[in-house]
Fold each of these.
Amino acid sequence: MEGSAPTRPTRGPGSAGSAPARKVARRLRLASFNIQAGASVRNFREYVTRGWQHVLPHHTKRTNLGLIADALVPFDIVGLQEADGGSLRSSFNNQTETLAEAAEFPFWTHQSNRRMAGVAESSNGVLSRLEPTAVYDHKLPGRIGGRGVLEVRYGNVTHGLHVFVAHLSLTPAARRIQLGFIAELLEAAPNAVLMGDLNCTADSPEMCWLLDHSALTFPAGTAPLTFPSWQPQRAIDHILVSPNLRPRKLRALPIDVSDHLPLAVDILLPARCSIDATGVSC
């Protein structure tokens, strides 16, 4: 499948022209988080009583973004969903950039998917301590637009790491079409990670279809419950990986800020790949 033209990641203001030096390694710490544009919800009733948070700014969002940034500091690559790209509800701040600055990530990029007349701008984002080789903005198919998958590549095309961040639709039929699109992208990505709010459980028909039509697998063990954050009952946030990435320690993080809990996992790159001050080498 022909993807969108690649773009360059944005350097954080503290990067000073290069990624921070680090020992040569192969292990990466990944996290995925639907941050609900910095708004907080403590029960289903507050979707109504605090519904104004989805269209208006409030000082609690700045506090919540600070808590989120503190929690993301230990990670190497973070995929964000529902990060506002700079509209009224975020006081016209790009929340991916805000988190990159607060948690001192040298590189960040975001994908604007749905703009609502300057009131809200829903985006996917990636925070990274390693410099990506390329970034691709893919628009997902669907009867109703406004969904996308953000692809960030590290290392070379053939053996490098491809990280995909997505926020899928609410209906099974739409998700099946979107996962079909993603499966085509995965054909050119032997070392791949798909993370995000996929809005379905691991045993859903559309997810089973993806597993049958790609090399992705779920990390071993029970999928952590992530939604709703105040009393998790459903596992609809996922991190899937290529088998040769050898995932370890999949867990939900106890950060009760959004209506989702973040997911985290460690991966081990193939033997031919390594991590140093220049990024991922394969």
Amino acid sequence: MTTLEALVSAELAEPVDPRVSAMAGAIAAKHPGTRAIIFYGSCLRDATLSGMLDFYVIVDDYRRAFDRRWFAWLNQLLPPNVFPFASDGLAAKYAVLSRFHLHRETSVAARDPSTYARLAQPVRLVWTASDEDRVEIAAAVVQAIETLLNFASPLTPPGSDPLAIWRTAFANTYRTEL
């Protein structure tokens, strides 16, 4: 295991507020074939959980995950689709991605930077179906970090330190979202 893989695995395993884990379990129950749920975003660093919680729901297959065929079709066509969720006084939004799209959107083949940029930041794995899924998610997060740095490196002056590359990466990904 590389140093980056070890760091990512440790970060993914850090504990979260039990209400976050409970919400992740409730979301997983809505989508058959859910493999993992990743918690990310500003509420990850806000102990009060006063904002909107952000999740990625990783599923085997869109057709299995949605009871409405057109949701599955739309998610296949333009992943990820985002849905609202509320539970226990908390509000959330979650994006549904198939395992295939997770791996594509964290790689250099990504259609846009939104997924790899989000997963290259601090994230927690708050629900998994198996230990194999835990390993797969860790590999996708490592890939997201490598992809982000790969795209940002040519945008920084030669010899830039890693922090300068990191700042350049996020300045550019935020710009594309706005």
Amino acid sequence: MTVTRRRFLAATAAACSLPRLAAFASPNASRDVAWLADVQRPPAVVPAGDAPLSPLLVDDANHPITTRAAWQARREQIRAWWLEFLGEFHVGRPATPEFEVIEEDRRDGVVRQRIRYEVEPGLPVEAYLLKPQPLPKSCPGAVALHATTRLTIRQSAGVEGDPEKAFGLKLAQRGFVTICPRCFLWSDDLSIAYQKHVDAFKARHPGSRGMAKMLYDAIVAVDILSRVPEVDPTRLAAVGHSLGAKEALYLAAFDDRIRAAVSSEGGIGIRFSNWEASWYLGDAVRREPLAHDHHELLSLIAPRAFLLLGGDSADGDRSWPFIAAALNVYRLYAEEIPGPPRVGLFNHRQGHSVPPEAEQRIYQWIEAYT
């Protein structure tokens, strides 16, 4: 069967989006993180110089949007524009690919399996699948997306590398089943340059941007995770740092199964980091003014929980306008969703890193809102 990536995403949304708004309220919604108000407070000074963001709550006739119904129509317009911008992605595969276990080990109360599956026909990819032991009959799940590193999935699964970025291992130790998929920029042969992988992808799928591939692969990982018998498919999260933060943002925006997400130092603004790279959005975003930016993706995530982490490198105080814009959309759900909006920015001011306080907040956020 051959389907467009757009149709696949539409089918995913039809199957797993949560139009029943009560489903957006986390099981732990009555136990918001203690610091929620802090991450919704504007910084004392927002750095000047960035172009103002386009308005979210304005319709085609330039009338203000004040109702959920009017917002839903606007939301569909935003979503459709981004899917068109990302480009068609034709791929044939079963709804959820089967996987094989390549190796297995145990560490600190976690069973860690290296698995292989076909993300596209004839194109295998590896991931780590981690399960807490003992494994509950029903538990939440999380997708942990690795940063730019030759360690790839070994980092997020805690096999080696910076322990503060071992999101998959540490969430498994907290009772989550986690999957750590490898980004398409790497393969088993680490001598292959990024661009060769990008060129091969674009030869297979002309007109698609690299971010479309990253998004698609992350959705496949969610498919696999949600089919693990012990995983509650209504309680899924996503987290990533740097490269992985970009993927987590797009995954949360276009897959409504993700109920809570944390994006660490990915650069929320298109001008904030290397979004022009061929493996992300391409150089068109630098050559010409783009009327759209990632505050629109944040609006697609509402009212689900989203935390942006910055260190005044890729993200920080200059990221605040994106959160402020999204907050206005989140507030449209106030009557249906109890409690305050669950979106915010935490700036740890320690550069492109995951310092201890930021790492702690990642797990607190995901545990509270998944």
Amino acid sequence: MPLFRSPETVIASLIVLAIILLVSFPIHEFSHALAAYELGDSTAKLFGRLTLNPIAHFDPVGGLMLAVSILFAGIGLGWAKPTPVNVRNLRGGRSGEAIVAAAGPISNLVLALVVALPLRYINTNNIDLGILTVILQSFVFINLALAFFNLLPIPPLDGAPVLFTFLDPQTAWRLRPILQQYGFFILLAALLFPIFGGQTLLGLVFADLIEPLYGLLVGR
């Protein structure tokens, strides 16, 4: 949904941007905080992050990145302020850490599913709601993107702690410091260079996972 395609698209993009900043990001970070709190860590609560208040979770750079990516590319790449978690306080060890990490992307997936249900009905019955349909479509797609992109097993994304849970302790112990030190550069290279069969990592995730799932959910 690139900028300047039509006035309707520009308005829809701005509305979707506001919804992501006011709903999707706060719920994502609140889910991290709530999961951590339920598993015994009060760090996020002490920092005022166990809340749905968008201001508490807003990151200026991540918000700007989201705005640029939505308006110019329609893909919604951005981030909120990371939720502080002290993994030493969590019950369940590595499993607890993985649950906290996965809670955020799962919340975005739930949001996408909730909005996809009425959208599928709208599409199936060829109901024309104008700009509202565009907004709903963008909301579903971007929340799917937030969910699955964040689940990539590369730090600083949420998928890294999930990956470590499925590895044996010795392998995880050896791999974790390497990925934590170089994860950002690995992720950047994967996003910029077509090293996956001629596609970038981002292109692969969108083309082979997010777009087919989007079509399945909304009936297109």
